[in-house]
Specification:
- A four-stranded antiparallel sheet has the order 1-2-3-4, with no helix packed on it.
- 0% of the residues lie in helices and 28% in strands.
- The protein has one domain.
- The chain contains no helices and four strands.
- The protein is mainly beta and 88 residues long.
Length: 88
């Protein structure tokens, strides 16, 4: 989860593929954001990097699918917490 200005708010690390678990859902620890705080939720794959497809919105208003600029918060790929021994 990323703030509007590209700051990492929360990262949920998955250590293996969930291809056979569709639709795929996972929970995470509570994230301290305001109901009306805009955030971006996106996926990062080990071998392909960040997807330009993401979800943006707020808890209060809901989320919509968006295409992000190629360089949006790209440096977060190296910011902790990072996965260890992740194949995907």
């Amino acid at each position: 989860m990323v703030s509007e200005n590209g700051k990492l708010i929360h990262r949920r690390v998955l250590l293996h593929s969930h291809v056979e678990e569709q639709p795929f859902t996972r929970s995470s620890s509570p994230v301290a954001i305001q109901p009306n705080q805009p955030v971006t939720v996106r996926v990062h794959m080990n071998n392909t990097g960040y997807s330009p497809q993401a979800m943006q919105g707020t808890v209060q208003e809901g989320f919509t699918s968006v295409q992000l600029p190629e360089n949006f918060a790209a440096s977060l790929a190296d910011e902790n917490p990072l996965p260890e021994n992740c194949a995907f």
